Amino acid sequence: MPSDDPFFRILCVEGNPAFQQLLKIALGRYGFDVMTAVHGYDALMQYKASQGQFGAIISNDDLPQMNGLHFVGVVRKAGYKGQIIIISGRQQRRELTKYEPHGISGFFHKPFDMAMLATMLLCAE
């Protein structure tokens, strides 16, 4: 049952439908209400429709139509102050320094432990 608490509402931007569904199911088991988007433009529409009321945003670095860096920059510029977690199957942590000005909360390289991701989300301040 989805929570009315925005802390438990997650926006997940992932271009791979199978992995997107895996994230939705896995995080749902921890009580999160996961909204999904396949690319940055879709995510921006959902962000605006929800007035930015998300406890966290999880974004793939490599997205179709609008890459993760551009998307993260836009939501930060729009005033989003919550957690942003980057996931990637291609980039290594050292190559993601481009996100540092946007204050990301974490980085997960695929494949990763969903329990660790959920713990990071639940332990947010």
The overall average pLDDT, rounded, is 88
Distance between the termini: 23 Å
Largest sheet: number of strands, sense, barrel closure: 5 strands, parallel
Q: CATH topology, which one?
A: Rossmann fold
What's a quick, concise take on this entry?
The protein has helices at residues 17-28, 40-49, 68-77, 114-122; strands at 9-13, 33-37, 56-60, 83-88, 106-109. By secondary structure, it is of the alpha/beta class.
Report what the structure shows:
By secondary structure, the protein is an alpha/beta fold. It has a single domain (6-122), classed as Response regulator (Rossmann fold), CATH 3.40.50. Helix content is 33%, strand content 20%. The chain is built from four helices and five strands; from the N terminus they run βαβαβαββα. It has helices at residues 17-28, 40-49, 68-77, 114-122; strands at 9-13, 33-37, 56-60, 83-88, 106-109. The protein has a five-stranded parallel β-sheet, with helices on both faces. Strand 1, helix 1 and strand 2 form a beta-alpha-beta unit. The two termini are 23 Å apart.
Key phrases:
single chain, about 120 residues, alpha/beta, Rossmann fold, five-stranded parallel sheet, about 20% strand, globular
